[in-house]
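Researcher: Re-running this chain for the archive, since the previous output was lost when a drive failed. Same request as before.
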Amino acid sequence: MTFRTPGFGRRLGTGRTRLVLPVLVTLAVLLVAYLIFTSVYTDLLWYRSIDFSKVYTTQLWARILLFVGSGLLVALVVGANMVIAYRLRPPYRPLSVEQQGLERYRTVVDPRRRLITGGLLGLLGLLAGSSVAGQWPVVLAFLNRTSFGVKDPQFHRDVSFYVFTYPFVRLVLGVVFATVVLSLLAAVAVHYLYGGCGCRARATRPARPRAPTCRCWRGCSSC
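Model: Regenerated structure tokens:
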């Protein structure tokens, strides 16, 4: 007759989960890297066959630089705001039902705070970098802009401004605006999680005792 130690199955299952998850993540990363490599190498071979490899390498480097630069910019700015919001958290939190509910989330997040933050910032940088890297024609057109020699009769600008510069300015403003909005949302989320902001109930003052009054229509000595 055998006996199992309580919790042994849970610990074994947790260990297997910790082992399987990194393997799955590694396989997914390798698969994505393989698909990207085959796509890039196939396009490079085609451009080489028609003697336009420099065109493709310029496009490829533009995508890489935009992906890395914009991803790092967004991740660093949002991460800095999250760190500032975390350091400005209040040392004492009010005892309320809302904070008691948030305490459960803080208990789960605090031991893995750096891992969760790094994962979220990495995902955010990946999405931002992919979005901006797709705008490589706008950036290359701005860097290689030329004058058309024709001015706009309304604003007296060269027409090339609306073809090359204006789309680039819109792209920069869009990235800046998205970074500010994401930083604001991340800071508010951290403040709310750690009790820096939230719905707080107003304290009610106790009612003052009133002096007894006589309800008789004539005054009496007992009142």
